[in-house]
Amino acid sequence: MATAQPTGARAPWYARTATTAGRPVVLALALAMCAPGEYQLARLAGWSDPWAYGMPAALSAYAGIAAVVAASRPKGARGRVSAILGAGLAIALALAAQIGAHLIEQGHMQGNQAWLIALISAVPPAVVGHLLHLAATPVPATTPATGQLTPRRFSQVEQTPAEAVPAGAPSSPVSAVPPRPAAAPHVPVAYSDPRCTVIRSLYAGGYRPSTSSMRDAIATAGLELRSDGFIRGTLRRLVEEAEPELRLLPEEPVRRLAAVGP
């Protein structure tokens, strides 16, 4: 009888390699294929070289920035709806630019129409205005209890004085593993992703959890596993944005990781 594969099993190395190495290659090829059409539209609207080369760069950068902002901002954050709309608009502009450029090149559409030239000319100022709007609406890192950012510094952590050693008592050997600092006070946070709750529980040990510890905890909880970059860059970042003092905890020691059994 065949053994069922566990939920969230790690993908084979060749699949991970193809995904990691393939995405930037595909992105670079797609941008290179889009550039000629966007360049021709810029020339059509009246820009001369080298300024016409800025149209592909502006549309590509705008789409990327808006998409990243839309994906990284949590629900209810300022600018998230605007970023989502901007990402959709950027994709629509890129699609329209490619379709329009090829229709004009093949003679199916007249390129000297006033409305088309006006629309193309409005792209750069619209991109600049929306990017400035996104930059002016950053996401504040707040705590749910007070709604204010209160970062903790190392200099503010109280240190417990060393216990007095009686005269003549033999000194104890120095431990190779430093004592664990006191864990940060845990203010319960209602996360929309249950994996964030699992990751937050790992901070109770007084350390900033490693990627392998977070992955093992998520797998043990029976939740969906994603890439290591998503676990570190998205899930752990959401936890530490809600409680910024968690970033000040030391990284999980290698000795402690090796001592953890199956």
Automatic annotation (TrEMBL):
Q: Which domain of life is it from?
A: Bacteria
Q: Which UniProt keywords apply?
A: Membrane, Transmembrane, Transmembrane helix
What residue ranges are annotated as transmembrane?
Answer: 51-71, 83-101, 113-132
Cite the residue spans of the region called Disordered: 153-179
Q: Which SUPFAM superfamilies match?
A: MFS general substrate transporter (SSF103473)
**Which portions of the chain have biased composition (kind: Low complexity)?**
161-175
**Annotated protein name in UniProt:** Uncharacterized protein
